[in-house]
Amino acid sequence: MTIASVLIVASGLVGIATGYVFRIWALVLISPIIAILSAFVLRAYDFGMLAGVTVIAACLAVCQLAYFAATYLLHGREASPHEEVDGQPGEISEQKIRSQHK
Q1: pTM (2 decimals)?
Q2: 58 with 44: CB under 8 angstroms?
Q3: Are 94 and 65 in contact (CB under 8 A)?
Q4: Which residue has the higher pLDDT, 58 or 47?
Q5: Longest distance between any two alpha carbons in the chain, whole Å
Q6: Alpha-carbon Rg of the chain, whole angstroms?
Q7: Torsion angles phi and psi, residue 29, rounded to 5
Q8: pLDDT score recorded for residue 48
Q9: For the chain, is the Cβ count within 10 Å smaller at the N or the C terminus?
Q10: Rounded distance between C-alpha atoms, residue 52 and residue 15, angstroms
């Protein structure tokens, strides 16, 4: 069971690293690599079919959740819905917008 925990934690770390460096399209490349690598490792440690599929699914889910968490922490302030409450432009504002008050 230790190897399953190591694979899940490693998948989470890969997801965090991917979230800080790459865009979401990187998950298309990283997910099959994680699944294949996990399958080889689990097969080497004689995991059964059901246990192996469960661990691989958990690895993929943790990787994707870690990616989205890292992306949110990195870009969360840029997409905050609270900036529009007071009507004042945020730090990232459009420069070529005409005034609505004529």
Answers
A1: 0.72
A2: no
A3: no
A4: 58
A5: 74
A6: 20
A7: -85, -35
A8: 87
A9: C
A10: 20
Query: Which residues, 6 or more positions from 50, have their beta carbon under 8 angstroms from its beta carbon?
Result: none
CA angle 96, 24, 5 (to 5 degrees): 145
Q: Which residues contact 59 (CB under 8 A, 6 or more apart)?
A: 7, 8, 11, 34, 35, 38
Share of the chain above pLDDT 90, in %: 43
Pairwise CA distance, residues 90 & 40, whole Å: 49
Give the residue with greater pLDDT, 25 vs 40. 40
Token pair for 47: 């995991």
Cβ-proximal residues to 24 (8 Å cutoff; 6+ apart), any chain:
67, 71
